[in-house]
Amino acid sequence: MHVRRHLRRAPAWLLTLSLAFVALPAAQAAQITHRCGGVGESKLKALLAQAPHYNLGFWMVEGHYGAYLADVPVRILHQGKTVAEFTAGGPLCWAKAPPGRYEIEARHDGVMRRVTVHTGQKPVYLWW
Length: 128
Hints:
Elements: H1 2-9, H2 12-22, H3 26-29, E1 33-37, H4 41-49, E2 56-62, E3 67-68, E4 72-78, E5 81-88, E6 92-96, E7 101-108, E8 111-118, E9 124-127
């Protein structure tokens, strides 16, 4: 095979480096950064202005009129593994994640909601 012939000529350090990247588990490879808030009009405006810096977004609301929620435990999962876990300090959360499909779980008053999203899809809603 041509691939084997090229691998035999590759320097040992290059082969070791490429094997190290292949060995990374998916959960460790997915780095998620997030920012939540939006309690108060000025803070909400500031958070909305941050939207271009993130590729996922979700609101957490309750009731018919969509009352904003805060202090909601959130988990973000990728391929069934938790890649981020935090308590949202407000109704709007932005997240930056590697491209892919994610599940966002949140629990309020003992009721869990889950939504599946793809990077670039924002904002979505978790309703109680």
